[in-house]
Predict the structure.
Amino acid sequence: MSTSPGAIHCTLIPGDGIGPEVAAATRSVLDAAATRPITWETHEAGGDVIGRYGKPLPDTTLESVRRTGVALKGPITTPVGSGFRSVNVELRKTLDLYANVRPARTLPGVRSRYEDVDLIIVRENTEGLYSGLEHIVVPGVVESIRIITERCSERIVRFAFETARRQGRKRVTAVHKANILKLSDGLFLECARRIAREYPEIGYDEAIVDAAAMNLVVDPHRYDVLVMENLFGDIVSDLCAGLVGGLGLAPSANIGDRYAMFEAVHGSAPDIAGKGVANPSALILAGALMLKHLGDLVGAARVERAVVAVLTKGEVLTRDLGGTASTTRYTEAVLAAIED
Ligand code: NAI
């Protein structure tokens, strides 16, 4: 939806912890780089708003995303153990953002274990152990239900193959634990094999999740696009972020048939919140994914080139990358690179 011809209309959810800091940085970078003006609708979510709205995800926030069709979201804290359920999971499920795409690519100038890592993790975003179905069977025994359906398995594998086709990728690997979870991951694999036959030009293979984790650390080049259920995707994508320089650099896109939401892989980082030292690159790069999704390929390329230019120069780096720059100073360097 647009307010003026060609304008981008977008919901901004700054989140909490380091969220507002990295969201402000990202907003200024996207405003400078996009080829069309961006109109931002800012909305709140998270534990801090429960007092005012009675829940952590206000209806007005959801309505805004439904109206604009696209959201940029900072991280939101989820309490461990008791307390409210994850707002991030609720947004993904309510808006049926079923595909969580997490690219992991080595960036020039960033010290990392390997050169030329270029992986895409496609994580199923709506079911698995994140179905939120847990109950106490008897005191001392708790059951968490892991839902795997044919419909969601087929659509996530198809999404992975479509991504591979669009990006000229060679292979899709289905990551599973069907040796132990014979029924649930057995169904996932059955679906993956069926969908793979529709894409004869793209290679297909399978890997058991524990072996895949080790192989990724030892030799990440053996993989290309990896598709998996929710929890495996959560863990494996953090592992892959570690392969390419850490959480401060890892963007993610949550895509559904009607809506899309872009965020960093990292969380609200309470240990550094409010100190002005967070690396905003992950959300900035998620912003580039958002511009691509909206068809502004030139704007997206400007953002990516500017981040790469600053990292390659290596003069203005945040603490997580071995530098001393504040979030603001780093953002200024990215803005200057866009102007160059
Ligand atoms: P985290 O990703 O927030 O932090 C892990 C470590 O990475 C910390 O040492 C932190 O300082 C560092 N880090 C993360 N992002 C950084 C950045 N941009 N720049 C520099 N350093 C960075 O993970 P943690 O501590 O497990 O989670 C904190 C909270 O975030 C939890 O409540 C969790 O539920 C929530 N979370 C939210 C997510 C989301 O909104 N999508 C995703 C992951 C976690």
User: Anything to note?
Assistant: The chain has two domains: 1-101+246-340, 113-243. The chain has a mean pLDDT of 95. The CA atoms of residues 253 and 262 lie 5 Å apart. The pocket of NAI is lined by residues 18, 22, 75-78, 88, 247-248, 263, 266-272, 278-279, 282, 320 (CB under 6 Å).
